[in-house]
Amino acid sequence: MTWYALQHKPAQGDRAVQHLQNQDIACFYPKIEVEKIKAGKRTRKLEPLFPGYVFVNLEQTDPMWAKLRSTRGVLRIVSFANRPAPIDDEVIAHIKSSMDKVAEQGGIKPGQPIELDDGPFKGISAIFQAYDGEERAIVLISFMQKQQQVKVPVSVIRS
Fold it and tell me: In which domain, by residue range, is 49 found?
């Protein structure tokens, strides 16, 4: 079986996957957890890795091809020269393994030791406390035999 891409209707990716799975079609709709700031609050939500696209695993001779276009949520089959464009299994396997690695890492967690790469505290070890907006983070550094809270740009943090 080969992987192919389907374009789904705007904001209907989950609906398309549900209806494709109801027809026993193997689907892959990769999503990643994204942090966003909304109304001043940091929130996490799952978003598609490839917005607008769902991957399906079918044989070229499968009779389900005729039903794909009329499946709820599906807009069209990604094609070139009126032929569905196949996607190598290695590409899908790489995407899946990369997503697993990202999920394992899970970002910087409170209490995690870090190092600062730039600015006045370059080279100093610190302990991550929390994010302070999108651009800054609060860290603890040891200074004059006491732990001090310092706000630093997120870009200078190395875990």
Answer: 2-105
